[in-house]
Amino acid sequence: MALWTYALSHQKTKDAEAAEAIRKRTLAAAHVVVERTSSSPYRTSMKSTDYYWGSNGVAAGYGMYLLIASQFAPDPSFTNAARDNLHYLLGRNTFSLSWVTKVGENPFQHPHHRPSVATGEAWPGLLSGGPNAGREDAVLAAFPKDLPPAKVYADQMASYASNEIAINWQAALVFLLAGELH
Fold first, then answer.
1. Residue 19's domain is classified under what CATH number?
2. Is residue 60 within 8 Å of 44, Cβ to Cβ?
3. Is the four-CA dihedral 107, 111, 116, 117 of positive or negative sign?
4. pLDDT-based confidence at 181, cuts 50/70/90?
C-alpha cells in the first residue's frame, strides 16, 4: 500500500524511476491475475494454494490489487476481474454462499465473532475467513482429507479457522466495494 500510495501521489519530489518501476511491476502482476481469473471456472483469482486462514481476504486483496492497477493504467479487464472476485465473495463459489453476513440470498450465518454470539445473531457485513485447507481447528480437522482446498469450510462458530472475522480482510472488502461503486 505504501508503494502504491507513493507511485500514485502527485508529489513533485518523488523519484519518477521508482514510481515507474512500481507501476510496471503492478501492471505485469495484474495481467497474470486477470489471466488466472478468466481461466477459473468460478472466475476467481484464487489459486489452490490461496485457501489458507483468511482466504476470503486473499480474494478481496486480489480485487483491491486489480483496482489499483486500473488506477495506473485503466483497463476493463482489471476492473472486470476485480468484480469477479467480488462475485466470488458474494456467492459465486463452490458453496453458492455469500461470505458476507446478511448479504445476498444465502449468506453464511455463524461467524466466529464474540459480539454476534452474545447477541444471538450475526452482525451484518462481516466477511468470513473462508475455506481453509490448513484445517487448524477441530471442525475442519474432521473433514475428509481428499476435499479440494476450496471445499474446506464449515459455517459454524466453532470453526474459527474458517469463520474468524478480522479487520485486515474486512478492509480489503471495503476497498473492493468502494472501487466497484466508483
1. 1.50.10.10
2. no
3. positive
4. low
